[in-house]
Amino acid sequence: RIVSPAELGKKLEISLHTVNNHLKKILEKTNSDSKTELLADFLLFLERQKLSPDMPPIRPKVLILDDETDLTKMLQHFFSSRNIDSYIYNDPLLALDAIRKLKIDVVVSDIRMPRLNGLNFLKEIRKLHYYEPGVVFISGYPEEYGVETLLDMGAFAFLEKPVDLERLHRLVWEYVYGSNPKENTDEAPVTVCLGNIKLNATQVGFGGMFLPHSQLSAHPGIRLEPGSKVEVQFQLPESNAPHRAVCEVIWKRDGVETPGYGLKFVDLSPPSKRQVLDMVRTNNILSFIPKGA
Questions:
Q1: What angle do CA 189, 195, 197 make, to 5 degrees?
Q2: Any idea what the CATH number is for the domain that residue 273 is in?
Q3: Which of 168, 252, 271, 279 is 20 to 30 A distant from 241 in Cα terms?
């Protein structure tokens, strides 16, 4: 049975946009107007390219915003070596326009910038894209802004200068594809599994969830630590549909009114991710990982 481009994209876990782009390229090289023949040619193309979920068919787009010329050129060279397209800007206002026009996936930005500091720049991005693109802040002055503050404002991650390039690569890949590059095997393994976690609207952000200590009562003896991996089976508000996510513990809060843990999504299926994003849009949630009620 010949399937539609949409069905083909879904089966191969690639976007309809990617499917149509390849079909367009094939159409330019053939005299046939038959969709059946075009799809057959496309399948042959995929076989030759050996496309699979392990080899994503699209190149992520990264915008680099920093006024250090040597650093931006080094980052651009590094991204190119990892099959990632990158664009250099040193003016945050020009970068905002480029983010929209180029459909940027991830922004790597310094915090200290002329005309618009990092946090105000992040606020302007959210006005354009709401929860996209992912923003990774880099800075040699981490004490100026706490990591939790940056995450609460919607940043995807924070890296201190000098930048750990492989860590940055993993963050870009993780944001775009929902998992780490397959060749990286040094990540912490999942050591804890939590089931039947019912979340409310104050616990879910577009990048993760807040898990209060009280919800660990069904799992006596378990204590999470930042950097550890945990598998969570959960339900979203007003839904009984089960979801599963592998999360990384980013922070923990003790000695406050609502102690608990901030969990960042590391591996979340596309259908679950869509439902999470639909929920945060509906509830006008702007936090990457909320701190709960």
A1: 115
A2: 2.40.10.220
A3: 252
Please give the Cα distance from 266 to 196 (Å, whole number). Answer: 19
* Long-range contact set of residues 24-32: C-beta below 8 Å, sequence gap at least 24: none
Give the domain-ending residue among 177, 202, 236: 177
Six-digit token pair at 51? 């496309």
For residue 62, the cross-strand partners are: 86, 106
Rounded to the nearest 10 degrees, the angle between the axes of helix 5-12 and helix 35-49 is 20
Dihedrals phi, psi of 46, to nearest 5 degrees: -65, -40
Q: What confidence tens digit (pLDDT) does each residue in 167-179 have?
A: 899 888 887 766 5
Residue 293 located in a structural domain: no
Structural domains in the chain (count): 3
**Predicted confidence band of residue 191 (pLDDT cuts 50, 70, 90):** low
Is residue 288 in some structural domain? no
Give the amino acid at 117.
N
Q: Whole-prediction pTM value?
A: 0.49
Q: Would 56 be classed as within a structural domain?
A: no
Number of residues in the chain = 293
Q: Are 241 and 199 in contact (CB under 8 A)?
A: no
Boundaries of domain holding 11:
5-49
Q: Are residues 104 and 138 in the same domain?
A: yes
- Residue 2's SS3 state is coil
Give the least confident one: 7-16, 192-201, 232-241: 7-16
131 DSSP β-pair partners: none
Please state, in angstroms and rounded to a whole number, the distance separating the CA atoms of residues 87 and 102: 9
Contact 154, 135 (CB under 8 A): yes
Place of tokens 């250090």: 68
